[in-house]
Amino acid sequence: MDSEIIYHFKKNRKQLSLTYIRMGIACWVYMAGLYGYEYFFETTVSQKFQLYWNIVFFIASVVLFYVAWWHRTHPATFEAKITKDRFMVSYPEVPEWSFDVKIADIKRFEKRNTLSHAGKGIIKHGILLKDGTFHHISMNYGNSINKMHKVIQSIAPEITFPKKVNMKVFGPIAKDYVE
Q1: What does each of the 179 residues of the chain score in pLDDT, given as a tens digit?
Q2: Residues 106 and 152 sit within 8 Å (Cβ to Cβ)
Q3: Which of 105, 106, 88 is nearest to 97 (CA)?
């Protein structure tokens, strides 16, 4: 079965935590950068600005290090596989975002969004099946939906990925997603 795999993306939370660690370290670099700026340019910034700068970046670093710690202490793995017949996504602890479908059942890849009185929602990337079912593909683990589309399009060239966002509108001018 493994020899049939054309595309395979796998990333665990421990690997993902490195991103948050680097971002937390960058916060400390920004804090040090302010002192470097004052030293090299022989100028000073206001004490109030310096206080807010350090508080904001310190709190941001604490939050980022906490998120990294959480990722390391709650192991899970995101995995996407494409074979000549199937497209499988396994998203940790979210069964709604995990699926296993036949490539022949895919109508197209698409981006979806909603519009309401509160404004636009968050864009969802995913696949639309011929029966009208939409499967969301989360980008939280750094996977590339464009790469997935290209691999699937090499198997089934009729599967498209329009650049236009499929929009659902709520309110007096209601409009559903284009199926």
Answers
A1: 455 899 999 999 999 999 999 999 999 999 999 999 999 999 999 999 999 999 999 999 999 999 999 999 999 999 999 999 999 999 999 999 999 999 999 999 999 999 888 888 899 999 999 999 999 999 999 999 999 999 999 999 999 999 999 988 888 888 888 87
A2: yes
A3: 88
CA distances in angstroms from 89 to 16, 18, 53, 111, 120, listed in the order given = 17, 23, 41, 17, 27
**CA distances in angstroms from 42 to 28, 35, 36, 89, listed in the order given:** 21, 10, 9, 55
Reference 109, options 88, 125, 94; nearest CA is 125
Q: Looking at residue 1, what is its pLDDT?
A: 47
Residue type, 3: S
Element (H, E) at 102: strand 99-102
122-127: long-range contacts at Cβ-Cβ below 8 A with a sequence spacing of 24 or more?
A: 123/165, 127/87, 127/101
Identify whether the C-beta of residue 106 lies closer than 8 Å to the C-beta of residue 153.
Answer: no
Angle of the 47-73 helix axis to the 13-40 helix axis, nearest 10: 160
How far apart are alpha carbons 141 and 163 in whole angstroms? 22
Largest separation between any pair of C-alpha atoms in the chain: 67
Helices (H), the chain: 13-40, 47-73, 145-155
